[in-house]
Amino acid sequence: MRTTRGCGDVALTRRGLLAAVLASASLTLLPGCSAAESSEQITVAGSTTCLPIAEIAAEGFKEETGVSVLVSGLGSSAGIEAVSNGTAHIASSSRGLNVEEQKLGLTTIPIAHDGIAVIVNEANPVDNLSVEDLCAIYTGEISNWSEVGGPEMDIQLVNRDEASGTREAFRTIVMGDAHFDRRAAVLPGTGQVRDVVSRSEGAIGYISMGFVDSKYATTTVKALSVNHVEPSEKTIASGGYPVSRDLYFFVKGEPAPSAAAYIDYVLSERMDDMIREAGFIPVARSVSES
Amino acid sequence: MNSTDTQRPETASRPKRELALVSRSTYLKERALQYLFFACAFLAVVTVVLIFAFTMLQAAPVFTDIGLANFFSLDWAPTEGRFGILSLAAGSALVTAGALVLGVPLGVGTAVYLTEIASARVRAIISPAVDLLAGIPSIIYGFFGMVIIRPFVAEISGGLGFGALTAWLVLAIMIVPTITTLTIDALRSIPMGIREAGFAMGATKWQVIYKVVLPAARFGIVDAIVLGMGRAIGETMAVLMVVGNAPVIPDSVASPISTLTSQIALDMSYSSGLHRTALFGMGVVLFIISASLVGIVRMLSKKRKG
After folding, report:
1. A152, A161, A164, A196, best to mutate vs chain B, most B CBs in 10 Å
2. B43-47, B178-182, B284-288, B295-299: the lowest-pLDDT one
3. Of A160, A200, A201, A219, which to mutate for an interface test with B (greatest number of B Cβ within 10 Å)?
4. For residues B17 and B81, which has the higher predicted lDDT (pLDDT)?
5. Among A77-81, B111-115, B213-217, B230-234, the least confident range
């Protein structure tokens, strides 16, 4: 959906791919030994971003069916490799499959959308930025709001620390190969970014969609449209809002009945509120079919 | 306790045990205590040596894999393989210098007031307040700086309020207790007779303070300043919260910078490989700085006595 922008996907290493191919080959030879059929424990491995969703679902699922779900966050790539060589039933991922991974024969199941809102101070009259503007602002090329249709005012960049998944996603989607301006203030938390932007007129920052309207915060921030698309549940779910990503489950072939039941549980309506609470947007039932 | 006093003069000529004028059990107890306290004191030495050895060992690849040219360059971009700490060191120096400029007059002034001018009743209020200042956790200072001082700096500078200026204001308050307490010690050690001689010659209170007392206590005051400097350089949490953490040479005192300590704290959680090595290398640099500060203090106090 977002491949047109040419923002670099994380590629599996050649060694990792080889291992995955070998593992899947050995699996075809020994179908009976697959972990997917041997026990009543389901393993979910992969993205740390997906951890909250997978864990909340695991708790509810265990209560309902008695089947325990082991959730681990190793990173998306590791999860995909684990499911393709049979050491995990389900891979969770905060990115889609890259070209090489698409050859592994995995089934893609979107579980939630995650939108990153670009936020500015409420006093800022600017309502919209293109992805190109956003990139130029964060590289430091554009340093005054007047260059993007705003008032004569310095742009105060607020960035996240490098450990942040939001920063990584923003970098991949918006920046491509460009580098962040190193003069930007680096703050170690979503709440801090939101607070600072809400109190500084020329500031710009980015936070996960779920935190724009926070019931715990006393101040407000304004989320900008990007490429004239407003960030909302609808536009993020449809893929129209550019600075968003999907969170996925991947399974290999036909999942074991218990794993399939767990996936159904994650996608079921009672998880919707939980997913929203974790800061993500549930996949609309109509969209998930496509 | 008496036993040590009585035995001391003669220990040279005869074996200790026979000389002790106490029972054997008391003697053993005394010796046991002696070793116990020696162990306590020795632990400090062991800890320093172990920490230094560990940090050095972890930082060793700085020389081999990163290279000194890379390590002592301006560019800090760990994800791109550039580990230059100079902009961070500059940040530390800038933050510390400003904090001293603001904090030293404040601290020394407080000490002079408390020892030379204040009445006993006023002293009873101010003294504990200064002590309490030392007891406030640094994260509270950071929080105070972020919530109260940062918006104020943002207002007057027109920026975000993260930067050296905010750090100066926070650190200046933080180093006051260190400087004040040590300066008070230095001023108290000046004999009363010197002051009285000054007054006897017709000097006013102010003249006695700045022409007699302060010069006489100068080594002690420099001592206090150096230790305050150590506190400012080493401060991490409060600085991390107010400097903005941008590893660059800043355009102004109100634009984001980063320091050695805050960058270590920020990166430690996710760093690996050479990046982590570089952090330990920064630790070694900090260690050397604080060791030389302690060295300076030692040298000064030797001078004061000699």
Report:
1. A196
2. B295-299
3. A200
4. B81
5. A77-81
Which residue in A156, A162, A202 is closest to B79 by CB distance? A162
CATH number at residue A194: 3.40.190.10
Could B245 and A156 be called an inter-chain contact, meaning their C-beta atoms sit closer than 8 Å? no
Query: Would you call B160 and A156 a contact, using CB atoms and an 8 Å cutoff?
Result: yes
- Is there a single domain that holds both residue B42 and residue B89? no
pLDDT at B84 over 80: yes
ipTM topping 0.90: no
B245, A154: Cβ pair inside 8 Å? no
Is B158 part of the contact surface with chain A (CB cutoff 8 Å)? yes
Stretches in chain A below the pLDDT threshold 50 = 1-38, 286-290
Q: Please tell me what DSSP assigns to residue B66.
A: I
Same domain, A50 and A77: yes
CATH of the domain at B108: 1.10.3720.10
Domain span holding position B12 = 3-59
Q: Are residues B55 and B88 in the same domain?
A: no
Report how far residue A169's alpha carbon sits from residue B155's, in angstroms, rounded to the nearest whole number: 32
Establish if A10 belongs to a structural domain. Answer: no
Last residue in a domain, options A217, A238, A259: A238
Last residue of a domain, one of A214, A238, A262: A238
Judge if A127 and A191 occupy the same domain: yes
Compute the nearest-CA separation of B61 from chain A (Å). 23
Both A268 and A285 in one domain: the answer is yes
pLDDT tens per residue across span B150-204: 999 998 988 899 999 999 999 999 999 999 999 999 999 999 999 999 999 999 9
Distance from CA of B153 to the nearest CA of A (A): 11
Q: Do A254 and A201 share a structural domain?
A: no
Domain shared by A202 and A152, yes or no = yes
Which of B159, B162, B247 is opposite residue A182, by nearest beta carbon? Answer: B247
Q: How many CB pairs under 8 A join A and B?
A: 54
Q: What is the DSSP secondary structure assignment for residue B148, as one 8-state letter?
A: I
Q: Which of A162, A179, A183 sits opposite B246 (nearest CB)?
A: A183
The mean pLDDT value for B138-156 works out to 93
In this prediction, residue A284 carries a pLDDT of: 62
Predicted pLDDT at A189: 82
* pLDDT band, very low/low/confident/very high, at B18 (cuts 50, 70, 90): low
**B267 CB within 8 Å of a chain A CB:** yes
- Confidence class for position B94, pLDDT limits 50, 70, 90: very high
Q: Does B142 touch chain A (CB under 8 A)?
A: no
Nearest C-alpha in B relative to A160: B245
What is the tally of structural domains in chain A?
2
Which among B78, B160, B245 is the nearest to A203, CB-wise? Answer: B160
pLDDT value of position B303: 79
